[in-house]
Design goal:
The chain is an alpha/beta fold. The protein has eleven helices and 19 strands. The strands form five sheets. The protein has an eight-stranded mixed sheet.
């Protein structure tokens, strides 16, 4: 998570003016001139030491403040979000401009807390309508929102999104979905032709953390279900609120992947998420509703007794999908890696973390843009990969491994 554009700690946030307003036209995520790489994106980092709130049990996120910009209110889906939010008893503040006041506090911690509890209904910037490749996960990435309420101690986005982290949900969902047809038949993940052209919709957020407020991913599932082409919608989640999706006319064109890990990792390092057992039960529920489903096992780490820990994970999944007719299950296997910048930010957020980021135990790699990344040594990677390939074949023989990284 480093870049040659990394800003100095304490520098003004992009999109902020001297009065302390937040420009809602400015995205949280940086504008990249090159392809996005989900497993090691090079983005600016910020020092947010000590700002992360303590882990808490998963629950439906209820923002303390919801605002909508004038442009967003002109969109039918923006109006639908307002109706949905107000139906939950949350007041929606109509802004007179695309600038939000009252977010910045007396110090950065207060600003962080205020921003983290705020949701803004906005229109996506033009740059978000130009899709980026996101290999090896999918051909293309598109966004319906930016911001995530979870607190994972290894999060590759931690500290990388510029400005106060006000969650932005997009009102122009219909226009975003309507523009996807221009990208069909192209992309970098085409080595999986059985999936058609694939579109990732959860790069900077968690859909099930927000969909009860927006309905955006339900709308996307219905859109892909009605789309008469060789396409697939993909998104991943650490939550389990799948009941609203079970009866949707998805026609098998949406693959929902659940981000899972060893039980020891999920209980210690994934604050604010659904318990592992609930996520896996939700996977089984969607599989029985005809959805293609998937496991995003990430980040894989050789924690103490890791073979037993990950065996417990795979056995939980095997029980959840036992007896599912025509099961379509995939696995994406992603090992833990970190950059100097991400280590600094994560240790600031979680100073007592048990996450192992000891450079002496890693191999240093340089990306094609010169970014430094610390990965496991070759022998450790080989042992991990060999074990997963063997155990997946034995415990989940129907599961297809899409990639290892």
């Amino acid at each position: 998570m480093t870049s040659d554009r990394t800003s100095d700690v304490g520098a003004p946030d992009p999109g902020a003016d001297p009065a302390g307003d937040v420009d809602l036209d400015a995205t949280l995520a940086p504008e990249l001139s090159r392809s996005h790489e989900a497993t090691g994106e090079q983005v600016p980092t910020r020092d947010l030491s000590g700002l992360a709130p303590p882990a808490r049990p998963a629950r439906r996120w209820t923002p303390k403040r919801v605002v909508i910009t004038p442009a967003a209110l002109d969109h039918p889906h923006g109006q639908r979000i307002v109706e949905r939010v107000e139906g939950l008893g949350i007041e929606v503040e109509r802004l007179t401009a695309n600038r939000l006041t009252g977010v910045r506090g007396d110090d950065e911690r207060q600003t962080y807390v205020r921003a983290k509890s705020t949701m803004a209904i906005v229109v996506s910037p033009p740059s978000r309508r130009r899709l980026q490749s996101i290999a090896p996960s999918a051909d293309w990435r598109f966004d319906l929102a930016e911001g995530c309420p979870a607190h994972c101690q290894y999060c590759y986005l931690a500290g990388s999104l510029s400005g106060p982290p006000v969650t932005r949900v997009y009102a122009d969902v219909d226009e975003i979905l309507g523009g996807l047809a221009d990208y069909v038949g192209a992309g970098t993940a085409r080595r999986r032709p059985e999936e058609g052209t694939t579109f990732e919709a959860s790069c900077y957020t968690d859909p099930l953390a927000l969909d009860h407020l927006t309905g955006s991913w339900r709308r996307a599932v219905e859109f892909f279900g009605a789309w008469d082409d060789d396409v697939q919608l993909r998104w991943t989640t650490k939550y389990a609120d799948v009941a609203p999706f079970t009866a949707l006319p998805h026609r098998g064109r949406t693959r929902v992947r659940f981000s899972v890990n060893a039980p020891a990792v999920t209980t210690r390092m994934e604050g604010g998420t659904a318990p592992l057992e609930e996520r896996i039960a939700a996977l089984g529920t969607l599989a029985r509703s005809g959805y293609p489903v998937g496991l995003t096992v990430a980040p894989i780490m050789p924690v103490p007794d890791w073979q037993s820990e990950y065996a417990r994970l795979l056995d939980l999944v095997a029980r959840a999908v036992d007896g599912v007719a025509d099961l379509d299950l995939t696995a994406e296997l992603i090992t833990h890696r970190f950059t100097p910048g991400s280590k600094e930010v994560l240790l600031g957020w979680y100073p007592r973390t048990r996450l192992d980021m000891d450079e002496s135990r890693r191999t240093t790699k340089r990306g094609k843009y010169g970014a430094v990344k610390h990965v496991y040594p070759k022998d450790v990677m080989s042992e991990l990969r060999g074990w997963f390939e063997e155990q997946l074949a034995a415990r989940l023989p129907a599961c297809r491994v899409l990639y290892w990284t």
